[in-house]
Amino acid sequence: MISITVEEYNGERRKLEVPVDMGLSLMEVLKAYEYDIQATCGGMALCATCHIEVLEGADKLPESNDSELATLDTLPDVDINSRLSCQLRPDDHMDGLVIRIKALQDS
User: Fold this and answer.
1) What separation in angstroms does the CA of 80 have from each of 6, 52, 59, 83, 93?
2) By residue range, what is the domain housing residue 9?
3) Is the whole-model pTM more than 0.90?
4) CB neighbours of 47 closer than 8 A, spacing ≥ 6?
5) For residue range 30-60, what is the model confidence (pLDDT) as tens digits?
6) Alpha carbon distance, N-terminus to C-terminus of the chain
7) How many domains is the chain built from?
8) Which CATH number do you get for residue 28?
């Protein structure tokens, strides 16, 4: 298990315990914690409804693939810390990651 923190829009932070041995994407973990992520495309990096901003620990993440970059490029509020949570598989290197769910903020 690792800890990933989600910063809520009121500034409060919620620490999530995340399993690394189940093969889940970060999007699936967030949905399991009942965050209202639509995941319209089912995790195929096509819809960006799982857009997150990495506040701390971006250097711990693997590089974005071409599909993720193409989808992020369609968003008006993308920045260097933007990722699609469907494309991230939690592993031991991500312990301590801090994110904000942009897709919910933009709704």
Assistant:
1) 18, 11, 12, 9, 20
2) 2-106
3) yes
4) 38, 39, 40, 41, 71
5) 999 999 999 999 999 999 999 999 999 999 9
6) 31
7) 1
8) 3.10.20.30
